[in-house]
Design brief:
The complex is a heterodimer of chains A (247) and B (253).
Chain A lengths: L2 H6 L28 E3 H23 L26 H7 L4 H22 L13 H27 L2 H4 L5 H23 L6 H25 L21
Chain B lengths: L1 H11 L2 H6 L8 H10 L9 E3 L5 H4 L2 H20 L9 H10 L4 H28 L8 H23 L4 H15 L5 H9 L6 H32 L6 H12 L1
Classes of the chains: A mainly alpha (247), B mainly alpha (253).
């Protein structure tokens, strides 16, 4: 035991035990004294109880609003618009712009797989525990959100008022598959090129793309749910026909 | 104060109380450790947590809130089952009766419905939080994968419940949804048939969605939540900047 260690951890004469050795290594707590942790009782449990109480209060007030119940199911009376549950409205919005198999199955399926494999590519541990990894990461996230929003809104408006299918309708594979895939691939590539200006780490590039995913996810839900009226045409939220909100 | 103390003592200083609560009130380090380790409902927690993981601005409590909403959904859902039969003849009337004739029926149905929607949202926000703070990185890769599956399961649970009232909203939402399933390349029609049990949305679909909703998906969910929580503990609790500091230290060594 070195001189210095002796000074920091002196052996108490009344103790029957003592510090034998200091080991260098990595574990979650090495070099971190107990001051970085607190007892779960009461600190963690208090926070949990508060979260639970807050949620309960919110839910009780929300439940003053009645859950919807429409007429008895009738296969002969088609709802217009016929909408899926709100969390599927992003898929239903995509259905309007491309082949159903691409919008409803292939893209969501690929998204789930891509989400699952992220941690196997995002391997640097340098920015764990920090929101958006760095100032640069935050800037990239904000920028990616703006980029994605502008393009998405532009594309939705374009396909509603100019319509890809009225420009190119034959063969069906063109508006159904090739054009949508080309647009998505092209915009992703452009996003990558533009993010590169920051000289980002791989983590920061992934932050840019994940932000684009989250923004797309929510914007398509908002568009499909609040802006699609009769025949799934664009409508302002206050002009929606009754029953167009599927909660 | 003396009388209060003696009342407290009368309640706690006997063999019955002490057979239930094996340690004293958790106001000492030792008892605080014991209460976490010895109590079934607390033992999923570590005895000590990093101060960083308690910051509201770090987690926004999204994981805890999602788990709590799931518990609310199991409780209200079990209660709703008392008043509901998954048949085309009865389902719609049962929901109407629930709203008008059953004590607190409307409230409990509302809570079940809104908690389900809220959970779809909080689980997704939880996933965003974990990604943006780097909580998915080594050694937590696989827990992230389980988390993604839990997110998909949450959506499937909400969706299968959507059909049960058997009203126009339910019927057409399920028709739209299963039509999407039907266009899956190669196996679309078979998949659709598997979900619906028939060519169209009908009584068979109602029974299948009911079974998936009240038993199969929740069962899977409970198992995976268990694994999810277990792995949080095994991977050293919530992610925190201590880990990145450690990496940098390791590099300078």
């Amino acid at each position: 035991m070195s001189e210095q260690t002796q000074r920091v951890f002196p052996k108490g004469p009344e103790k029957t035990y003592g510090l034998m050795e200091l080991v260098k290594g990595t574990s979650p707590m090495v070099d971190k004294g107990p001051e970085d942790t607190v007892d779960s009782w009461p600190h963690l449990l208090t926070m949990e109880v508060l979260a639970i109480l807050g949620t309960t209060v919110l839910l009780l007030f929300w439940s003053l609003l009645n859950a919807p119940l429409r007429e008895f199911a009738n296969p002969d009376v088609t709802e217009n618009p016929a909408k899926a549950a709100w969390y599927f409205m992003n898929l239903q919005e995509m259905l309007l712009h491309m082949d159903p198999a691409l919008a409803g199955i292939i893209i969501p399926g690929l998204m789930i797989i891509v989400l699952m494999v992220i941690p196997y590519f995002d391997i640097s541990k340098e920015d764990v525990g920090i929101w958006f990894a760095s100032k640069k990461g935050r800037a990239i996230a904000i920028w990616s959100a703006i980029y994605t929003s502008i393009w998405l809104i532009g594309l939705i408006l374009f396909d509603e008022y100019i319509r890809v299918r009225s420009l190119v309708s034959e063969p069906a594979v063109l508006p159904g598959w090739i054009i949508p895939i080309a647009v998505m691939a092209g915009l992703s590539a452009l996003l990558y090129v533009l993010i590169r200006r920051w000289r980002p780490t791989r983590r920061e590039v992934l932050i840019g793309f994940f932000t684009a995913f989250v923004v797309t996810y929510f914007l398509l839900i908002i568009s499909g749910l609040f802006f699609r009226g009769l025949g799934m045409h664009l409508t302002l939220p206050w002009d929606l026909p009754p029953g167009a909100l599927s909660f | 104060m003396a009388s209060k103390t003696s009342i407290t003592r009368a309640i706690t200083q006997n063999r019955v109380w002490q057979s239930v609560f094996r340690q004293g009130y958790p106001n000492t380090e030792e008892n605080r450790a014991k209460v976490i380790m010895n109590t079934l409902f607390f033992h999923i927690h570590p005895v000590k947590v990093k101060t960083h993981s308690l910051k509201i601005s770090y987690t926004w409590g999204m994981g805890v809130i999602s788990a709590f909403l799931f518990a609310v959904l199991v409780a209200t859902g079990a209660w709703l089952m008392f008043f509901y039969a998954p048949s085309v003849e009865r389902a719609y009337n049962d929901i109407q009766a629930l709203e008008t004739a059953v004590t607190f029926g409307m409230l409990l149905r509302n809570m079940h419905r809104w908690a389900a929607h809220l959970m779809v949202l909080t689980v997704f926000l939880h996933m965003c939080r974990v990604f943006f703070t780097g909580g998915h990185k080594h050694p937590r890769e696989f827990n992230w994968v389980i988390g993604v599956v839990l997110w998909v399961l949450t959506i499937l649970l909400s969706y299968t419940g959507y059909l049960l009232p058997w009203d126009q909203l339910a019927y057409w939402a399920i028709t739209v949804g299963t039509n999407i399933v039907g266009v899956t390349p190669l196996i679309g029609e078979q998949l659709r048939l598997l979900f619906l049990g028939a060519k169209e949305v009908g009584p068979e679909a109602l029974v299948r969605f009911y079974a998936l909703h009240i038993w199969i998906f929740p069962g899977l969910m409970i198992i995976l939540i268990g694994v999810h929580f277990w792995r949080i503990r095994k991977d050293g609790g919530l992610s925190s900047p201590i880990e990145s500091a450690e990496v940098q230290q390791g590099e300078t060594k």
